[in-house]
Amino acid sequence: MNFLWTTLQVNDLDASLVFYRDRLGLELDTLFEGEARIAFLGRGETKLELLEGAAKPSPTVSLGFQVEDLAAWRDKLSDYSPSEMISPSPGLTFCFFVDPDGYLVQLVEMGQND
């Protein structure tokens, strides 16, 4: 399992980019524009994900981990309120779990073509 990112749901992605990118100096890795706007910042394996336009109100924090065999992990953690499996693009599938304190944990399988 690899730690991928920490997600912050933000109210204003542009204002958050000014803070995290322009003022703190985190490098913008990827920017997705669509129904939700998503920015990944930082170098190396672990990123900061800024998410604007999600259904849940801000502030929400989640942790993302890359796994192999997401379905097996979903079964293994079935007592932690798993979400449905979501595939927003080819080669990317994920679902969320709720940890004992209510934080969201996102498990992500990459390279899967549904």
Q: What's the count of strands? A: 8
The major pleated sheet works out as: 8 strands, mixed
The chain-level structural class is alpha+beta
Helical segment tally?
A: 2
- According to CATH, the fold-level topology is 2,3-Dihydroxybiphenyl 1,2-Dioxygenase, domain 1
Give the class-level CATH name: Alpha Beta
Query: Which range best describes the helical content: under 10%, 10-25%, 25-40%, 40-55%, 55-70% or over 70%?
Result: 10-25%
Mean pLDDT: 89
Name the CATH architecture.
Roll
**Beta-strand share of residues:** 35-45%
Please state how the strands of the largest beta sheet are arranged side by side: 2-3-4-1-5-8-7-6
> How many discrete structural domains?
1
Q: So what's the oligomer here?
A: single chain
CATH homologous group name:
2,3-Dihydroxybiphenyl 1,2-Dioxygenase, domain 1
Describe the structure.
With 114 residues, the protein is α+β, with helices and mostly antiparallel strands. The chain has one domain (2-110): 2,3-Dihydroxybiphenyl 1,2-Dioxygenase, domain 1, CATH 3.10.180.10. It contains two helices and eight strands, in the order βαββββαβββ. The protein has helices at 13-23, 70-76, and strands at 2-10, 28-32, 37-41, 47-52, 61-66, 86-89, 92-98, 104-110. It has an eight-stranded mixed beta sheet. Strand 6 (86-89) and strand 7 form a beta hairpin. The radius of gyration is 14 Å and the shape is globular. It starts with a strand and ends with a strand. The mean pLDDT is 89.
